[in-house]
Design goal:
293 residues; alpha+beta; 6-stranded antiparallel beta sheet; 7 helices; 16 strands; globular; ligase activity; ligase; ATP-dependent DNA ligase; NHEJ_LigD
Length: 293
């Protein structure tokens, strides 16, 4: 029988804590849950009020990996859920609002993915996101060069951008926005991706076509679509290496000369939070959210 743990008055069954999920690193499920428990203070604000999609990998990243968007069977009745619009009709999704809900969800072994809008305002985007994805032999070093260009270009429109590693190969840029639909934000993001390709033609591609991407950075603007989700800050990715999607400073972006410099594992996050706090915290300040030009 799985041990029962009480978290803020909620009883949660935590299973297979000794199971090794990442063989190359020796990381166990218990250590993964420890990461989420100790980063909850900075992670939860990025999940709260946002319908969450779970990318589950219960047997580790080498096992079956699958998305769960609807409320999973067996979800405790104290976990908050919300009805969300979809093209095929409304659906019900989980909202991870507190530490007990986070630990229940983490026990499923999942990456956390969120929309760029909140459950109470699905028609208005409050985030703009660029997913910078390098096509080998390009690396995150090349993504950093593109990120710096995009940061300056966004600033010219009065939009303040923040960066985090994707936890995979690339980099994510995030900005707070207001007063626009997901469709409008997507249009704006696509226009900037096209502009980036014109400005950096040897480095950037704005189309997803695989044959165009080797040696270039794909500026994925499509993550702004209302139906799309992006890996949340501080989530551990389902990859052979247990890398965390980690907020980074612009000095770290500008100074990146080797891909290894922007790879962070669960043990790295606590010290970074103590040193920097949550580098993405300004996203929660409504006064910083920009209107699109």
């Amino acid at each position: 029988m799985a041990p029962i743990t009480e978290v803020e008055g909620r009883r949660i069954a935590l299973s297979n804590l000794d199971k090794v999920l990442y063989p190359a690193a020796g990381l166990t499920k218990g250590e993964l849950l420890h990461h989420y428990a100790t980063t909850a203070e900075v992670l939860l604000p990025h999940l709260r009020d946002r319908p969450v999609s779970f990318l589950r990998y219960p047997d580790g990243p080498d096992g079956q990996v699958f998305f769960t968007k609807n409320v999973p069977p067996g979800t405790p009745d104290w976990v908050t859920t919300a009805e969300v619009p979809r093209s095929e009709g409304p659906a019900r999704m989980v909202l991870v609002q507190d530490l007990p809900s986070l630990m229940w969800a983490a026990n499923l072994v999942t990456e956390f993915h969120t929309h760029q809008w909140t459950a109470d305002a699905p028609d208005e985007a409050d985030r703009l996101v660029f997913d910078l994805d390098p096509g080998p032999p390009a690396t995150v070093v090349h993504c950093c060069e593109v990120a710096l260009w995009l940061r300056e270009r966004l600033a010219a429109d009065g939009i303040e951008a923040y960066a985090k590693t994707s936890g995979a190969k690339g980099l994510h840029l995030l900005a707070g926005v207001r007063g626009a639909s997901s469709e409008r934000v997507s249009e704006y993001a696509k226009a900037l991706a096209v502009e980036a390709e014109r400005a950096l033609p040897r480095l950037v591609v704005h189309r997803m076509t695989r044959s165009l991407r080797p040696g270039k950075v794909f500026v994925d603007w499509s993550q702004n679509a209302a139906r799309k989700t992006t890996a949340a800050p501080y989530t551990v990715r389902a990859r052979s290496v247990p890398a965390v999607s980690t907020p980074v400073t612009w000095d770290e972006v500008a100074g990146c000369g080797r891909a290894e410099q922007l790879v962070f594992r669960p043990d790295d996050i606590g010290p970074r939070v103590r040193d920097f706090g949550d580098l993405l915290a300004p996203l929660f300040e409504r006064r910083r959210a920009a209107r699109l030009p």
